[in-house]
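Working notes for the structural subgroup meeting. M.R. asked for a predicted model of this chain before we commit to crystallization trials. I am recording the input and output together here so anyone reviewing the notebook later can reproduce the run.

Input as submitted:
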Amino acid sequence: VYRVLDSQKKMNKKTKVRQRKQVVATAESSITDSGSNGQVVDSQETLKQEREMERKERESIVLWRSPVRTLKYFVLEASVLLYLLGKRLYNRKKTVLLCVVFSMVLLAIYNIEGAHQQTVGSVEKTVLWCAYWVGLGILSSVGLGTGLHTFLLYLGPHIAAVTLAAYECMSTNFPEPPYPTEIICPEEEGKQYRISMWTIISKVRLEAFMWGAGTAIGELPPYFMARAARLSGADLDADEFEEIEELLHEKNENPGDMSFLEKAKLSVHNLVQRVGFFGILLCASIPNPLFDLAGITCGHFLIPFWTFFGATLIGKAIIKMHIQKLFVIFLFSEHHVETVVNLIGKLPKYGKVLQTPFKEYLRLQKQKLHHKPGTATSGESGNLLAWIFEKVVIVMVAYFLLSIINSMAQNYHKRQCKTKRLLQ
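Returned structure, recorded in token form:
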């Protein structure tokens, strides 16, 4: 019964879209019959030219070209988004009220003294740790290509640090605290365990899974945008879908002129469209910078939410994360790291110069693993590699924030153009 009702709803929506298209076609045919066919063609060409001019103008709205205008549009877009958020919260007053009551109960439990505080502290630590990695995962994939590559900056180095520490300490029973904020070898004299890849994988499984779940959540905005546009009867001429439209046009008109990247994007689109769940799972299970197209495709073809999100979650948080963990752990195993450092020293002319900071960095890392909490290690602040990595992180985070400002400013310009077309 549910499927019959659901199919009836879909048929009603399709009927409405067809009726809307028939009305447009009838209007265009009546204009053609009255001898105004040339005017229709001219208006279509004028509309295309206007949209092209709008797109070029929107591309120039960046901080390094027009900073005042970009910042103004960013503030206005943020105000609009806050207004829309407040409006949605007001429309869902009961849900908001329940969330407020639930939060007040949790706050009371958190502040009241008692025997439960030990459990509360443990739960708080786990929740904050998971939320940290979920947030980094969302930042890594949200924003249709403007994401921060948090695996290279945070999760990858964390797994590498745990790997190096496991082989140095011959154990993964790092004392808590300070782990996970700081890794120190356990004071278990005479107790050494056999370290394998699976031991280290189990140690970092929670944070890796949470990061993968965050990347899956970050893929939802393109899906919801495309789904909303399809249900509202929008065509593929919107800016969010222009890339797919251009790819399909190139495929039909000039299939031999397509580049390797364009063919790869089109392959992702076709795979998801034809195979469904397993196509999404395959695209999500491998490091794939083109997965935004998969989300847009799934939304446009009205693939059910749980089919898309379930396949994305399994692919990114389980399959792909295990592949990435195995790669990082294999690369940073103790004998592999020493082999790489020795190979760097064999490079002609500059080998010894390049080898020195790597050796010093490894020495300091091993030294830090054996010091007691609260004590400083000698030479901790003077390592060149640590300084370079810190500056790279700062630059990438700054670029990410700038890209978010530019993107929001361009979205406000797009909003202005749509409003102007509706008023004409």
